[in-house]
Design goal:
Length: about 450
């Protein structure tokens, strides 16, 4: 079965790794079924939506390897939402309400005091045309509620009305519409809440599946009822678990620390971010996938846990290091050349240092160590030993065996061995006490630089 899915962010801020998780779930789901992935920018909030955020979302998805088959903007589709709203009004399923927020709050409190659920009592349905006109003459503007199908003939006598669906992530789900308030679809100022535009778009764009965070589970029954009211078949729903911070707090677009753009600027690889976003909080091991194709093959919504998944940015460091360690030199060559590494040195340098870096930017530091002057801190008791090392330094050409033959000769000449032999050489050649194998690093440093650092 093919699939048409969507990712529907609001361009009111930068998307974070939790948003990317939803985008990736949808994109991978579509790729597995040779389907279509639609990016729908929910930009009906004119005051907060910005073009820079919309472009940023597109750029972030591209960085992750996601190329939408179609991009839609809700701000261009108000005529379709108005048409759907009018259809519901004509059917008597969208009705005007005039209560203020304060009045609604008082009613909820009264219902709680009587032991009743704090849902809307549909009193606006009892208003006559004259009463509505009088309220409007007072300057009140109505908000509009959708009449839930939770009654037989009398809307004031609700009955148990189960809406059920088979959730791709959560299994069989059921919600009683009698336990819910009629949802507001239109505000007093005439603007739409999320619900109706989203449903209209899902119908018009022929969405087969809606995969989103579990924070939308509570809305699903109402949305299914509206799909039916508009004469449409609802899509298949899937509600995945959410990412939280390491301390258990929800992620927010207002905090840019975990935004995709911030992670990109911090030097993480796109497949590191994608791998962690998709595999964390599932029964699959979190491993770096080399490509989106590999991640697509691994992805399975049925493996997603019901519990929230805690995201620790520190996990990215180890995952990024593993990804780079397994990355072939030809995939990274262009970026190393941009750093100033000569093309004929790229492969050897990458093979030597890739196991000792967390980010590609770390290679630049190792290239400076290889190619530039350094001022190592040499202990006084090691100076004579290093002078002896210089006298035993082999002539070029050097290869992977040069280190072994050189240190073997030094061991025989000085009697030093183990750390006493190798650590002074490492500190003299690199200025550090740790790093890549010197047997592989030495030919890159070369004889001239090595002599300069020994004496």
């Amino acid at each position: 079965m093919t699939a048409t899915v969507r990712f529907a962010p609001s361009p009111t801020g930068q998307i974070h790794i939790g948003n990317a998780r939803t985008a990736l779930f949808n994109a991978l789901f579509a790729r597995q079924r040779s389907g279509s992935f639609v990016l729908r920018l929910d930009d009906t909030d004119v005051a907060r939506s910005r073009e820079e955020y919309a472009l940023g979302i597109i750029r972030d998805l591209e960085w992750l390897g996601i190329a939408p088959d179609r991009i839609e903007r809700q701000s261009t589709r108000f005529a379709f939402y108005d048409e759907a709203a009018e259809k519901l009004k004509q059917a008597g399923l969208l009705y005007p309400c005039f209560e203020t927020p304060e009045e609604l709050d008082r009613r909820r409190k009264r219902r709680r005091a009587r032991g009743l659920p704090p849902i809307y009592d549909r009193s606006a349905l009892k208003l006559s045309d004259e009463q509505k006109a009088a309220l409007e003459a007072e300057g009140r503007k109505p908000h509009w509620r959708f009449l839930l199908p939770n009654f037989e003939s009398d809307p004031f006598k609700t009955r148990r009305s189960e809406i059920t669906w088979s959730d791709l992530c959560r299994g069989e789900q059921s919600v009683d519409l009698a336990s819910l308030s009629d949802p507001v679809l239109l505000r007093e100022d005439g603007t739409y809440l999320y619900t109706l535009p989203s449903i209209v778009d899902d119908i018009d764009f022929a969405m087969t599946h809606v995969i989103r965070g579990e924070d939308h589970v509570a809305n699903t029954a109402v949305q299914i009822a509206i799909f039916h009211a508009l004469g449409a078949t609802p899509p298949v729903f899937g509600h995945h678990n959410l990412l939280t911070t390491a301390s258990g707090e929800g992620l927010s677009k207002r905090s840019g620390a975990l935004s995709i753009s911030a992670l990109r600027e911090a030097g993480y690889e796109p497949m590191t971010v994608a791998s962690l976003a998709v595999l964390i909080g599932s029964s699959d091991a979190v491993e770096p996938m080399a490509s989106l194709d590999a991640l697509t093959a691994q992805f399975d919504l049925a493996h997603v846990s019901r519990a929230p998944a805690r995201f620790d940015p520190a996990d990215l460091d180890a995952l990024n290091a593993r990804l780079l360690r397994e990355m072939p030199a030809d995939r990274i060559a262009g970026r190393l050349i941009e750093m100033g590494v000569p093309a004929d040195k790229v492969s050897a340098l990458w093979d030597t240092v890739s196991g000792n870096i967390e980010k590609v930017s770390d290679v630049e530091g190792w290239w400076r160590i290889v190619s530039s002057q350094i001022e190592p801190d040499i202990a006084a008791e090691d100076r004579e030993f290093l002078e002896e090392a210089a006298r035993h330094l082999p002539e070029e050409p050097w290869d992977g065996e040069t280190w072994k033959s050189w240190t073997g000769a030094l061991k025989a000449a000085t009697g030093r061995k183990g750390k006493g032999l190798f650590m002074p050489l490492r500190k003299a050649l690199t200025g550090l006490e740790h790093g890549p194998e010197l047997a592989r690093l030495l030919p890159l440093i070369g004889r001239r630089n090595t002599l300069d650092r020994l004496v």
